[in-house]
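Bumping with the actual sequence this time:
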Amino acid sequence: MKTRICSAFALLVLLSTCTIELSPSGPSDDVPTEDIGGDDVPGEDIGGGDEPASEVGITIDWTEGADAPLARFEGQSAVIAGKLYVFGGYTDGSVIPKTLKADVYDPVTDTWEQLPDMPRPMTHAGTVADDTNIYFAGGVVGSDDRLGESQKIPATTEVWRFDTVSEVWSVMPPLPEPRGAGALALLDDTLHFFGGTGEDRYQEVGDYWALALDGAEGWLELAPLPFPTNHLAGVTANGTIYAVGGQTGHNETLQTQSSVQAYDPEFDGWYEVAPLPQSLGHIGNATFEHGGRIYVVGGEVAYGGSSDQVFVYDPSLDLWEEATPFPSPEHSLLGGVVDGELVISGGSALETRTLIGRLE
């Protein structure tokens, strides 16, 4: 029988006084129009969360690349073979999944190229990539209505694979239950999905399922998250899976979280590590592993408040460090690491800009 462990060994992060830069008041932080969708559209910028560390320990030189062909947020992203792939997302103030568009950015040529359409409009899907394929699990999706108005579906069991070589979409074994705003990680040729919400978007769930990529027919149930969140990040570093930040509740009831939980596959259990210096949600596609460390760019600090902070976690020290901030407060960014550079697109401001962050 497997044993669960939830022991805590988190070190205290040294914090000093610093005021995080919040986005301007009102809907302009996330969408350029009035709140007409009632989903992930911020209200008054009220701030919130713990204050970040004050010293910048890691320097990032931010420059601009070619504009993306589409402004989007709450979409999906992954890096394969030196290119950033972005998919779906919200594209206007209605916050209804409408677009089937996917695009790929090549930093070498500084150009964007359109990909084949997605099988359905998709947001909030757990996303991860191997050397060739990009995987999508769950999500808040739109009806597959290519001729009419898309309708929002708050959670789905669908799992998809996009082959970046053949550019073909394939159906994979579905999740055991509908999920949206959960996290997806990859370890030892196995997909790991955890957290998020079910069809009730105001209630986070901690279920944890794994799917082996060697032809397994279904997902296996593993130890659930001790502290469930939604709109969290899932990332693998040095053979360990981390559940980073997220929120409880939704929209006007949301409370962003700073917790970071690590999974031990040997004992099928989770344990706490050093928390984020700032409580953050909406960081699922802006949290990356590079050089054995974990980078978190931007995020939502409260309903209507975004962060420009960049935090870096060193698992060997169980310590977070502050890096040069992102050029503007944003959440729901899309990005990845390409040849030692952070490549960021999209975000809650609904702009088309592409930002390149050279790590020094």
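The tokens above came from a reply further down the thread. Residues 1-38, 41-49 have pLDDT under 50 and may be disordered.
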